Here is the input.
Amino acid sequence: MADTNGLSDKIKGGVSKVKGEIKDQVGNATDNTSLQAEGKKDKLKGAIQQKIGKLKE
Here is the structure.
């Protein structure tokens, strides 16, 4: 059955945002700019996924 209420998009978005925040913080702490950039990208991806989920409501 297809997800019509956007819940799975919201959950995936939340996971991506948390994963991205962790990468961003670890990259910041270790002066790893590529990991930081990857974390910021994951956070953006998560925000977009959550917005898609809200639109499906």
